[in-house]
Specification:
The protein contains 14 helices and 17 strands. By secondary structure, the chain is α/β, with parallel strands linked by helices.
């Protein structure tokens, strides 16, 4: 038996007035997701424990059966692992987003979906101007997603930081990183200073001047957040007895795969944006199944559309995922298989934020008795045969290693 897990990041939503109070999942034409719901069993899965902030780091660890309260030290260390950046025991890695600041507020969490080539030039300048040898490092990533590392800095875990996509339009002075104790005050001061210095450096950067002249938003400020130490995680194969691979354009997901010792598959044209290469992801997934028991395919595009507050774009990304990726996998897989589809969390198209609501999921397996649900969405899944699942990984449900009367 081969196993496939498809994660449409942020795909779920609340009802939207402009869509006759339906969600993008309800409106989207997605025959393949609906086919899985019809042939299989549905339910809703709690992916975000109540005391944690809703995000892909928490949610994807939960989906895979790794307790985020135990294994999540911060988003940063997972992401730098995907870039082959080594962390020592006392090093702290932050995600360092390239944002657009305007009139003292965060205007855009992604600097207008800045290209990787443009962003790399900007981060190079930040490295030249703001790095401190053996203390503070900057590393470039993809698009707006980059990294800041504090070397030999044990107290930086005591900083409270804010994801920029959750605070669009808010005053930067009120959401700066904050120390959680007196011991972390010096780190707070240092990080805040780097943020302020970045604006002075980047507002005159040639890349940003060109972007402004072209009517695009500049990457004129860095925003460090979700810092943490190097985590320690049991390998996925030890946990489930499955040889596995992960396909994603997002460093966070690759990093989770790295620490859980999955095969990381890089796909040409995978961008983490709505223009990602869905077909190539499907082709590489099918190829990976030849030598793996399970393949995880993560698609970031619906989440990006939700953060952009564009529900029409979100509908399109769901339809693209269904037709150009999921459909190709279902139509071309040769071995007996089980497949699951779900979002990791809700991303609300009206506000651009994540929520901790349980997410819909559907599983097809020859071993599972179908329920009566024939549509995949947030509403119908509540009536599914699995019901509400808490404290159980989706992998256990997918592989039949759970007590759910399958």
């Amino acid at each position: 038996m081969k196993y496939i897990l498809i994660i449409g990041d942020g795909m779920a939503d609340y009802p939207i007035p402009e869509l006759d109070n339906l969600t993008p999942l309800q409106v989207a034409k997605k025959p393949n997701m609906d086919k899985i719901a019809t042939m299989g069993r549905t339910g809703i899965l709690k992916t975000v424990p109540g005391e944690l902030e809703p995000g892909s780091d928490v949610a994807i660890l939960s989906i895979l059966g790794y307790d985020p309260k135990k294994f999540l030290t911060g988003r940063g260390p997972f992401e730098v692992a995907a870039r082959d950046i080594e962390l020592k025991e006392n090093d702290i890695a932050f995600r360092c987003s390239l944002i657009t600041e305007y009139n003292g507020k965060i205007l855009d969490y992604s600097a207008g979906q800045i290209s990787t080539s443009e962003a790399s030039e900007i981060i190079k300048t930040i490295k030249d101007e703001l790095e401190e040898p053996d203390k503070i490092e900057f590393h470039s990533g993809l698009s707006y997603r980059h990294f800041l590392i504090l070397r030999d800095t044990p107290n930086s875990l005591l900083l409270k930081t804010t994801p920029p996509h959750n605070v669009i339009g808010e005053k930067i002075s009120t959401i700066m990183p904050k120390a959680k104790s007196k011991k972390a005050k010096e780190i707070e001061r240092k990080i805040r200073k780097k943020i302020k210095q970045s604006k002075k450096i980047l507002q005159k950067h040639p890349i940003n001047i060109s972007r402004i002249n072209e009517g695009k938003r500049p990457g004129n400020m860095i925003w460090p957040w979700s810092g943490g130490k190097k985590p320690s995680i049991e390998s996925f194969q030890n946990k489930y007895g499955l040889k596995s691979a992960v396909i994603s354009a997002v460093d966070l997901v690759k990093g989770i795969g790295y620490y859980s010792k999955m095969q990381i598959i890089n796909v040409p044209g995978a961008t983490g944006l709505p223009n990602t290469n869905y077909e190539a992801k499907a082709q590489f997934a099918l190829k990976a199944l030849e030598e793996n028991d399970l393949v995880i395919v993560h698609v970031e595009a619906p989440d990006e559309a939700g953060h952009a507050r564009d529900f029409n774009l979100k509908i399109k990304t769901i339809e693209d995922l269904d037709k150009r990726l999921l459909g190709l996998i279902i139509d071309n897989i040769k071995d007996p298989y089980a497949i699951a589809i779900l979002p990791d969390h809700l991303t609300l198209s009206k506000s651009g934020i994540h929520t901790r609501d349980p997410v819909p999921f559907a599983i097809y397996s020859p071993l599972i008795t179908p329920d009566k649900v024939n549509k995949f969405n947030e509403i119908d899944a509540k009536n599914g045969g699995f019901g509400l699942i808490e404290n159980n990984s989706l992998i256990s449900l997918l592989t039949g290693n759970a007590n759910n009367n399958i």
